[in-house]
Amino acid sequence: MVNKGKQPPRARTSSSAKSPARTAGANRPTNGARPQRRRTSPAVYRRRRLVVFGALLLVLAMLVAGVVAMSSSLASKADSGISKNDAGAAAPAVQAPSTDPIVPTTTPTPTPVCDLNLVTVTASTDQPAYAAGQNPLLSMKITNGGTAPCQVNVGTSQMEFLVMSGEDRIFSSKDCQAKGDDLVKQIDPGKSETANFPWQRNRTTEGCGVISAKPATGTYTFKAVLGNKASTKAVFELR
What is the pTM of this model? Predict the structure, then answer.
């Protein structure tokens, strides 16, 4: 049977063979022009800016770290207390003066001690010569020649006023002394104590025996005695 009005189908093989050729021709640019590049999206630009900004921050951080490290190194060198002089030799760094008050140290002076060997006794009379009826005044002087005060017994229990004529014992204040008294006094360095005894131009013996004879005119000596210390003789004359 013949289908009216319908055309028989064409062969698909020839049509399919011609399609690749057309497609290849259609994809080629005309007039030799290069293909256009694909436009970059805004998200890519943002990512690129973030990367650049992060790199700048990293560089700044490295610079700051270098400055801090250099400052620390200089500070540690300054604190080491060692500097160098012009010749390159190491010299001690100058230290700031201390504000603490300086307390002077003093060595205590030893307290001087009395030396009784430096206590001396001297004898004297108020005149070198005495007329008839004039009584001599005998004086005993005790002097501290040391550097410390001395306690000295200057009582009558320790004193003796002794008058002699040559080897003849004429008078002693102890011969008729009933009771001697103690009297301790402090004598400062360089100071003296003086005791006076008016002699009646009489003679005495030990035990206070009675002697009626009077000393004749002539030369006499007076010696002052205090304990175990005795003076040199003082010479005077009776007229």
Answer: 0.55
